[in-house]
Amino acid sequence: MGTVHRLDVGVPAPDITRAAEAFLAEVDNPNTTRAYRTVLDALARRFGPRRPLTVLEGEEAADRVSEWFTGSWGTAAPSTFNARLNGLSAAMTWWRDQGWLTGDPLRRIRHRPRTPDRTRALDRAEVERLLTADRVNLRERTLWRLLYESAARASEVLALDVEELDLRNRRARVRRKGGTADVITWRTATARLLPRLLSGRTTGPVFATDRRARLELAAVDVDPHTGRARLSYRRAAELFSEHAGGATLHQLRHSALTHAAEDGANTSTLLAYSGHTSVASLARYARVSPESLARWQAARDPAARRR
User: Could you give the angle at the alpha carbon of 54 between the alpha carbons of 52 and 55, nearest 5°?
Assistant: First the structure.
């Protein structure tokens, strides 16, 4: 943005089109100019391109601006809604600096929070931060680590009983979606956490509640020695979402499969890892990130190898 030149008080406000052009002439970035022009052109069409900026002053004008703006972009994605609002706000701030406006026609409108994308894979740094956070207790730390290292569904892991674990060989028997018997495996980090979590237990649910069950449950869902119930999916999901800023347990599975694909796992390995029987079902999980694709391209670039 260029230097602001404040005009003398008393100079008549220009019309909306001329005010918009004056503002846009001060914007240095061509991409920003195009984005701002979109919303300013819409403003001019709604309130009249040749009407003075003073048409935007007052309480009734603020109501009309709010009604127009939400009617135009209220159903858009939060990022689009906020971008259009930012363009208007930048222009109106500049117009006030020129003495052309005195109030804020946007005072009825608020930025919208971005909705978390609960379908995407988390990047490796996000996953590592969650799995090593100091404030996470042992049960959640073990559950999340096992989910990520095994790429299993949360429902499959939460259904595990201690006797189904093969701790020596780092594997366990699970029932996949649809009831198919299968085996999941894990790595060193999970192998170190599981014995600490079990603390000598040889039967009952691997992941149990903190207190004894208050309601009568099926015997299979209660630890016979402590009386604690199997941890529910709902509670496990709530705890993860609280720590992960709205992310879901399913995103750990998604992330594990994506990262395995980025590391070069072939289709057969990914099918065994995920428990899928269809390549089509697997495809949406094993999508390589743009950053990983860029690294792959750089690594196979002949010019880079010569350097």
Answer: 80
